[in-house]
Amino acid sequence: MDLSAPTNPIPTRYSDTTGKLNLVIDLIFLQSSSTELNNHSIYPDWCLTSDYALLTVFIPIVEENVNLSKFSIVKNSEEEASFIKNVSSIIKNLDISDLSNINKLKDVVNTLTSNTKCTWGKNSKLVNVTRHSKRWWTKEYN
Q1: In tens digits, what is the pLDDT along the chain, a chain of 142 residues?
Q2: What is the rounded distance in angstroms from the CA atom of residue 129 to the CA atom of residue 124?
Q3: Nearest CA to 91 among 115, 73, 75?
Q4: Alpha helices for the chain (secondary structure H)
Q5: pTM over 0.85
Q6: Dihedral of CA 33/35/37/40: which sign?
Q7: Is the CB of residue 4 less than 8 Å from the CB of residue 28?
Q8: 71 in helix, strand or coil?
């Protein structure tokens, strides 16, 4: 827990009762030891009908490019149909006649995993994912 220093150290509560202090301990939850969020501002003019002033924090939002590459299969594509067909065939052809011990079960699972990865590799392609990757422009906008 850290103490956030206000940029304008003024009371945050304004009592309408004579003799009561215009002071209260306020809690504001921010990231501890943050250089960007290390202080807050008090706005007594924004309290409207409340007897508490608003506390605000400026949160900087920077544009960030996160580039990621991953293998993907386009939905409803020929590659997707081929992948589903191949995986179905892999599952159908698994030899599950003897799963009497853990080693035989592991062998079946490893075979399924290996063959599915191979099929994924054959049908997927490497795509770069950026913040502009989602296709929102459709024919109806032309």
Answers
A1: 667 777 787 777 777 767 776 666 667 777 777 776 777 788 878 777 777 777 788 777 777 666 788 899 999 999 999 999 999 999 999 999 999 999 999 999 999 999 999 999 999 999 887 766 555 555 565 4
A2: 14
A3: 115
A4: 78-92, 102-123
A5: no
A6: positive
A7: yes
A8: strand
Closest CA to 120 of 69, 72, 53, 88: 72
Tell me the two tokens of residue 41.
Answer: 């501002």
Q: Which two tokens stand for residue 37?
A: 């969020």
Could you tell me whether strands 39-43 and 5-6 are parallel, antiparallel, or unpaired per DSSP bridges?
A: parallel
Tokens for 128? 């770069």
* Residue at 33: amino acid letter: S
Q: Is 17 left (phi over 0), alpha (psi -120 to 50) or beta?
A: beta
